[in-house]
Write a structure and sequence with these properties.
Layout: H1 14-28, E1 48-49, H2 56-65, E2 68-72, H3 77-93, H4 113-129, H5 135-146, E3 149-159, E4 162-173, E5 176-177, E6 181-191, E7 199-209, E8 225-227, E9 233-235, E10 240-246, E11 249-252, H6 255-259, H7 262-266, H8 274-285, H9 296-302, H10 315-329, H11 338-342, H12 344-357
Parallel strand pairs: 2-5
Antiparallel strand pairs: 1-2, 3-4, 4-6, 6-7, 7-10, 8-9, 10-11
Helix pairs in contact: 2-3, 4-5, 4-8, 4-10, 5-12
C-alpha cells in the first residue's frame, strides 16, 4: 500500500477557516453603488437652457439668488414675478430684527434662531460639497445652496437645556433656474414625567413644489402639512413622511421615496445617494439641529442607507468655505437677510465669472 500523502495545511484546518473569514468580510461590507453623472445640458431636456432668462423678472431672480443653469425656458415672466415676490418676502422673514422675523424667533426655545439657520444651511451645502462631482462645479452649486434655505415658521420651548417641543417649517429652493423648491415640516415632543408615562413624539414631512405653487400672497404657507377634520395637522396628501415616532413605535420611509426629491431640486436622478439626500433633508428641516435629546428615530432612518462611491460628508470643504464667507461678511451690510449674507460667496463667484467673460 502506498504511503499516505502529508496534509500540506496540517491537521488544524487553518486555511479553510481563513477563506471562510474572508468570505464573511465580503458579505458584511458590500460594494458601494456608483453615482450617475448629472447631465444638465440642453440636449437632456428641450425646456432647459444654459443661457440666463432675458426677461425682466427672470433676470432679477437669477441675479438676486445666484441661480445656476439649467434654466427652465417654459417659465413665464408672470411666474418669475410671483417667485420673486414669494422669495423676497421670505428674505424679510429671515432678516434679524424685522417685524416679519417674529414668526420664526421663539423666546421660549431659548436658542438663537439665526445660529440654527446658519448651521442648517451649512449642512445643506455640505451635502453637495461631499457629492461625487468635480470640485469646481459642486462648489458653485453648494455656494448657491448655502443661501437657499428659509424658515417659514418656527416655535419651541426648552427645559433643562434641551427642547421639549419643536415645531419647525422651512423651505429649500433649487439652486438652478427651475423655480422649484421643497417644503419641510418637523415636529418634536419629548417630556419626561416622574409619576406617569412621558411623551415621545416626532414627525418629519416633506413635499415638493413647482413654480406653480409659488404664492406671493401667502409666502409662508407650508405644502407639507394639512389639517384633518379635528383641526390637527397631518402630512399633506402628496407629502412624504420621512419618519414618524409615536411613543414606542417608529417608522421611516424608503429609498425610493427619498429619491423623488432629487429631480425637483437638481434636475437629475441617481447623482446623490439616498443617504446624502436624507442628510440634506434633515439639515433643511432642522432635524437634530435643535439640541434634541432624543435622536433615535432619525439616526435609525439614516442607518438604512449608504453613500455612493466617491461621496463624503463634505464637512472639510464646508469649513474652508465658511472661513472665506466670514471674511466677506465683515464688509457686508449687517441688515441683510441671513440667506442673502450666505450667498456672498456665490455672488463673488458670479462676479469673477462675469469678469472672465468680459
Amino acid at each position: 500500500m502506498p504511503p499516505k500523502r502529508a496534509n500540506p495545511s496540517g491537521s488544524t484546518g487553518e486555511r479553510p477557516a481563513k477563506k471562510a473569514a474572508t468570505s464573511a468580510n465580503k458579505t458584511s461590507t458590500p460594494r458601494l453603488k456608483k453615482s450617475k453623472s448629472p447631465n444638465w445640458s440642453e440636449a437632456s431636456n428641450s425646456e432647459y437652457s444654459q443661457e440666463k432668462p432675458t426677461g425682466e423678472w427672470g433676470a432679477k431672480c437669477v441675479e438676486r439668488w445666484c441661480l445656476l443653469p439649467p434654466y427652465n425656458l417654459s417659465i413665464t415672466e408672470a411666474q418669475w414675478k410671483t417667485y420673486y415676490s414669494e422669495r423676497s418676502a421670505l428674505d424679510k422673514v429671515n432678516t434679524p430684527g424685522t417685524a416679519e422675523s417674529k414668526e420664526i424667533v421663539s423666546e421660549e426655545l431659548c436658542q438663537d434662531t439665526w445660529a440654527i439657520l446658519r448651521k442648517m444651511s451649512g449642512n445643506v451645502a455640505a451635502a453637495i460639497f461631499g457629492a461625487s462631482l468635480d470640485e469646481e462645479h459642486k462648489k458653485q452649486i453648494g455656494r448657491t445652496m448655502l443661501g437657499s434655505l428659509y424658515f417659514t415658521e418656527m416655535w419651541g420651548n426648552d427645559y433643562d437645556d434641551h427642547p421639549c417641543e419643536i415645531r419647525s417649517m422651512s423651505r429649500l429652493y433649487s439652486p438652478f433656474g427651475l423655480g422649484t423648491s421643497i417644503d419641510l415640516y418637523y415636529t418634536y415632543n419629548l417630556r419626561h414625567r416622574i409619576m406617569m408615562r412621558g411623551e415621545r413624539y416626532a414627525s418629519f414631512y416633506v413635499a415638493s413644489r413647482t413654480i406653480h405653487n409659488c404664492d406671493a400672497k401667502n409666502p409662508r404657507s407650508c405644502s407639507a402639512v394639512e389639517k384633518n377634520s379635528s383641526g390637527v395637522q397631518k402630512a399633506a396628501y402628496d407629502a412624504i413622511t420621512v419618519f414618524d415616532r409615536n411613543m414606542s413605535k417608529s417608522k421611516s420611509t424608503t429609498a425610493a421615496n427619498i429619491k423623488t426629491f432629487e429631480e425637483p431640486l437638481f434636475a437629475c436622478e441617481g447623482w446623490l445617494s439616498p443617504l446624502k439626500l436624507t442628510q440634506m433633508l434633515f439639515a433643511a428641516g432642522g432635524v437634530m439641529h435643535f439640541k434634541e435629546e432624543d435622536k433615535e428615530t432619525p439616526k435609525a432612518a439614516l442607518g438604512k442607507f449608504q453613500y455612493f462611491q466617491g461621496e463624503s460628508d463634505g464637512q472639510a470643504i464646508l469649513k474652508a468655505e465658511l472661513a472665506r464667507l466670514g471674511e466677506l461678511e465683515k464688509a457686508a451690510d449687517q441688515g441683510r437677510a441671513v440667506p442673502q449674507r450666505l450667498l456672498l460667496l456665490a455672488r463673488q463667484n458670479d462676479s469673477s465669472s462675469g469678469e472672465q467673460e468680459a
